[in-house]
TrEMBL record:
Converts heme B (protoheme IX) to heme O by substitution of the vinyl group on carbon 2 of heme B porphyrin ring with a hydroxyethyl farnesyl side group. Belongs to the UbiA prenyltransferase family. Protoheme IX farnesyltransferase subfamily. It comes from the Bacteria. This is Protoheme IX farnesyltransferase. Keywords: Cell membrane, Heme biosynthesis, Membrane, Transferase, Transmembrane, Transmembrane helix.
Length: 313
């Protein structure tokens, strides 16, 4: 019996130990918070109107869909989660929730989320949400994560769909604005996760996940981080340049982008074999601030435009 088999065997009788917080942990609440923010932003920027009650139900549906994706991800990855120090205390490898219970939980939430969104807004948005769940759980988690060092590049699309889903919930379709929001998250994902992978190199190596630093080496990863950052920053400014964001966003996106590039360049210049990897850790931490700040400001401007008289903002 292998170590991973032992973890699964020991976890099976422990389902009675599960508490509500363990099922909440399956939803990946920190990831869900970003999904909710970006989906609300997409909804707020979309032209047209949606009844407040239906808007709340739509956002709740998207949040549940994100949680379902997280639960399915933890179900499938419970074997490697048991080995990695960063994830060993998750509910399944820690033996607090049974794998089959987590799978059922994720599937039920997926059906609930898609059905609710279809009934509350429209079935195009619901279909896009269903595809997002499928993309993350099947294409990324089951297909890409353990097979290619480009897992984060392609799989990052799953995390980039929520603003498009929010936009579609209001309009019933997609537009250039929602595509730009998608691209911001899509291009942000590789430098964000590769920075993490650089100082979690041993964790990913211990379970055979081919993250770019493990396959191509630190130097190639640092170069890729910097190149993606060079593309990300102008795309992050694009909402202002295209006219669907205001001057506050314009100034903030330039300043935040300059700081992102500063951290990316410091990571690029980081010497080989640097055990502390402080530049990569700083980039990872700032990348979270960067993305949250952009979408909070976009949302704030959208709310301001809706509340202030025409032409005041």
């Amino acid at each position: 019996m292998t170590l991973l088999d032992a973890n699964h065997t020991n976890a099976m009788p422990a389902i009675s130990m599960a508490e509500p917080r363990d099922y909440i942990a399956l939803l990946k609440p920190r990831v869900m918070s970003l999904v909710v923010l970006t989906a609300i932003t997409g909804m707020a920027l979309a032209p047209g109107a949606i009844h407040p009650t239906l808007a709340v139900i739509s956002i709740l549906s998207i949040a549940i869909g994100a949680g379902a994706s997280g639960a399915l991800n933890m179900w499938y990855d419970s074997d490697i989660d048991a080995v990695m120090t960063r994830t060993a205390n998750r509910p399944i490898p820690a033996g607090r929730i049974d794998r089959e219970a987590a799978l059922a939980f994720g599937l039920i939430l997926s059906l609930l989320a898609v059905s609710m969104l279809g009934l509350a807004s429209n079935w195009f948005a619901a279909g896009l949400l269903a595809f997002t769940i499928f993309f993350y759980a099947v294409i990324y988690t089951m297909g890409l994560k353990r097979s290619t060092p480009q897992n984060i590049v392609i799989g990052g699309a799953a995390g980039a769909f929520p603003p498009m889903v929010g936009w579609a919930a209001v309009t019933g379709g997609v537009a250039i604005e929602s595509i730009v929001l998608f691209l911001i998250i899509f291009l942000w994902t590789p430098p964000h996760f590769w920075a993490l992978a650089m100082f979690k190199l041993k964790d990913y190596g211990s379970v055979g996940v081919p993250m770019l630093p493990n396959v191509a080496g630190e130097r190639a990863t640092r170069l890729q981080i910097f190149l993606y950052s060079l593309v990300l920053v102008p795309v992050g400014i694009a909402p202002w340049l295209l006219g669907f964001a205001g001057p506050v966003y314009g100034v903030a996106s330039v300043l935040l982008g300059a700081n992102f590039l500063r951290h990316a360049y410091a990571t690029f210049r980081m010497p080989d074999g640097d055990e502390k990897m402080l530049p990569a850790k700083k980039l990872f931490a700032f990348s979270i601030v960067y993305l949250f700040a952009l979408f909070v400001i976009l949302l704030g401007e959208a709310v301001a435009r809706s509340l202030l008289p025409a032409g005041w903002y």
